[in-house]
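Researcher: Can you fold this with 6-phosphogluconic acid in place?
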Amino acid sequence: MKNHSKLNDIAVIGLGVMGKNLALNISDNGYKVSAFDVDNQKIHSLVSQAQSESPQLDPHRIQPCLDVKSLLNSLEKPRVIVLSVPAGAPVDGVCAALIEAGIASDDIVIDTGNSLWTDTVAREQSYQGQFIFFSSAVSGGEVGARFGPSLMPSGNLDAWARVAPIWRAIAAKVDGATGLPIERFEPGNPVTEGEPCTTYIGPSGAGHYVKMVHNGIEYADMQLICEAYHLLSAGLGMAAVDIAAVFARWNQGSLNSYLMGISAEILRQADPLSDKPLVEMILDSAGQKGTGLWTAVSSLQIGCPAPTIAEAVYARAVSTQKALRTELSTRLQGVNANTSTLTDDERSAFIDALEDALYCAKVCCYAQGFQLMAMTAAEQGWQLDFAEIAKIWRAGCIIRATFLQSITEAYQADSKLSHLLMADIFATSLSDKQYQWRKAVASAVMQGIPVPCISSALAYYDSYRAPTLPANLLQAQRDYFGAHSFARIDGPVQDKFHFDWSGSRTLNKL
Ligand code: 6PG
């Protein structure tokens, strides 16, 4: 598309890593961009990067704006303004500045940060009448933002109609026939063919909710890979570079994913200072910004089991308690597992079992995430299209993985699928691989190597395939000490009984 007017198509406010790269991506796709940041240096660095990267393109395609008022004046109406500022108070700070500078009621402000979805719902309401507060979560990190992220827009449908062409242009693309990403990382030469990784998610807040669950899955997926690394390094005593080779091989099969690929690459990297593998020189204390935690909290609040996602959040928490772990390591006994006597065949059998375990646990993480979205959608009245959500995660985002194509197909075959593990492909593959999964977990347990995510996923699998769980005893305990009553297996579930456990020992129907 060609804009012959003197005014620009869209603005980006906040030119940190994500905002700068989104602005470059948008301008690569032929849109004229106004750019503003409170830090002048960032504005100039964007403009000079655009010119040096693609000198053949119009040098004015990105217009630096030194304040919000001039940014508003530089835009076609109704205006489209992308916010790429940290979640929380900064979003409201920019909105207040836009109101003061005279934003119009039909202008659209798109929050692309990792905002808490309930804040997004509240913002859409509170800014009503002043401008249209729209949201679009973005996944893909720096490279994704620059050359094609996965975009999860939600909110006002008229705003989406206006934003959609730009979003489809800048999103990552997938080859419709193979379901594989079409990747090209060339400034000024965006991918224009293929299926764009963006879809309207639903009403206000839905996009940020779906992105939050994406991040919960991301936390679990990362931790699973770390547990496999731990088993191969501490368990089998393998060198980082050899583990890299195993991960690279796994990345050719059903475990193919962006996170597996970068993990192999990380493990191959030597430290420029010590010449040891760089990964071994990095402190084992992981940070977090909160989206995994929000996912776990949401799952607890709505009563959706997502233990593997929650365990991934706990794993980061325990990793940060380095001093306490070091102290306890001198107090608590483990086992002296000796894997050095394993034959080559036994070692490679273990690696194969671990590959299957990782696949099964990974499927369970996704199953937890999709069930969580389904339960929240039912509660909120959102009509989420899970085939479309799986589709837009096939490229651009951090959890992109080949097997998202299978999830897409599972939901395309049955949009009302009660649980991902009900889909033939996953029910069959997990049933086939579950023995290998148990072998890997058993070995970890016997070696004293913590695998909270791989093992919690197995407990999840075993819980969901159990028609009977010991909650009968639990319900009896509740009735014993609190007269909480229970239902019987030989009558309607709504009929409640109380047993006088320590007195008359009589059964009373309530
Ligand atoms: C993405 C990422 C991105 C970021 C998160 C998680 O999809 O591009 O999820 O949003 O990595 O901020 O970061 P933390 O690990 O710091 O919570």
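Model: Folded with 6-phosphogluconic acid in place. The chain is about 50% helix and 10% strand.
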